[in-house]
Amino acid sequence: MKRLIITGALVLTAVAAAGFVLTRAAPLDADRFDSIDGDASRGETVFIASGCASCHAAPDAEGDGKRVLAGGQRFDTDFGTFAAPNISPDREAGIGDWTVTEFASAVTRGVSPEGRHYFPAFPYTSYVHMTDQDVADLWAFWQTLPADATANAAHELAFPFNIRRAIGLWKQIYMPDGFVLSQPETPEVERGRYLVEALAHCGECHTARSALGGMQRSSWLEGADNPSGRGKIPSLVPDDLDWSATDIAYYLESGFTPEYDSAGGHMVAVIENFAQLPKSDRQAVAAYLKALP
Amino acid sequence: MKIFITSAVAAATLFTGSLAYAQDDFSGQLKARQGQFRIMAINLGILGDMAKGETEYNAVAAQAAADTLVAVSMIQQAPMWPEGSDEMSIDGTRAQTTIWEQTDDFQSKWADFGSAAEAMQASAASGQDALGPLMGQVGGACKACHDDHRAPAD
């Protein structure tokens, strides 16, 4: 009996330890960015391509106001309502007192400076592919942005989705090891892959999600239900999207489909960003989409 | 007898009332407003294909298309957007209730299309290079309104 109790205790301890390890929030090494200098002007391109302002600007921000990352937009999902936080360089209300490594841990691993998991409404399962240089450039650009003192609104999530520790397990399942398109055949396709799979995080909306809310990478970019509950987000794979590469690039520049209907919904923000990128980047996205199986 | 007449009148009122309701599917208004968007798309296609380089630039054709966009922008909109012709009330439209809740915003976005069309009209004949930015301006006006006032496609 005593033996059974000891064995039981050992098993429980092992399970707890394994659970602890599996669910902990692991930041990046503190010295990882010591020898990387960030370039703010390059960082602006990363900022635009990554669509940071599309979610973190205030709900009705227009024009230059979209560079004020005060937060406050709300996102309704099956798991509850997420409120985008203030990520402006304000030292109190925003993230102005972070180090570059803390910023990188947040963006690419979904780990806060306090060692907590962020909810994956923050698309770190895509940003995980971001290069260290791009993260450093982005952080350098961040220092040029205006600070804002707006306080964060709370997320409204139901149990059990509000248990942050459980996100550690979720990450074990859904943080990708590598890119979906493993062998880009040209540098252009490789650039397109980086834009689509990492920075512009297209898969977050255009790929269907599992019951646990992770991207089903086996049906990559094949379309999904709109998380708002209304309408479908279209498939981008060649079997479904028969637009020419020119049409795709032009859509990302102007918002016009080949039939000259125009974009609506969240794609409006996406196109606003893509229109500011070099033409070669829009063409790279088109080349990548054409290269998908 | 009096009761009968009253009832008959009430029934007749109800009946004609429901008849009137049945006719209010706003099909004429829907055809008109969707038709004007179709005219816009066809003429934007002429300009956009030239901007993309898919068809050869032709100043006369570009000017005619731009003139048509301006003509559409001058069609008075109010009669085509009666109260109750939104996507929650009837089929066949993606017009969101916000059009009637934020009428000023809707009208100002329609006016922005007019400004973009006039800019296109002023410069469409001046060369292929000019078309790209002009299309961007028109596209911006389309997107701004669709973003707020058009429901997602099914």
Protein architecture, described:
The complex is a heterodimer of chains A (293) and B (154). Chain A is mainly α. Chain A folds into two domains: 38-175, no CATH class; 192-293, no CATH class. Helix content of chain A is 41%, strand content 5%. Chain A has helices at 2-23, 40-50, 52-56, 100-109, 124-127, 132-142, 166-174, 187-199, 203-206, 245-254, 267-274, 279-291, and strands at residues 74-77, 80-83, 156-157, 224-225, 232-233. Chain A has a three-stranded antiparallel β-sheet, with no helix packed on it. The N and C termini of chain A lie far apart (59 Å). Chain B has a single domain, classed as Four Helix Bundle (Hemerythrin (Met), subunit A). Chain B has helices at 2-23, 27-52, 59-73, 98-101, 103-123, 128-149. Chain B is elongated, with a radius of gyration of 21 Å. Classes of the chains: A mainly alpha (293), B mainly alpha (154). Chain A binds chain B through residues 226, 228, 230-232, 246, 250, 253-256, 259-265, 268-269, 271-272, 275, and chain B through 40-42, 44-45, 48, 51-52, 54, 135-136, 139-140, 142-144, 146-147, 150-154.
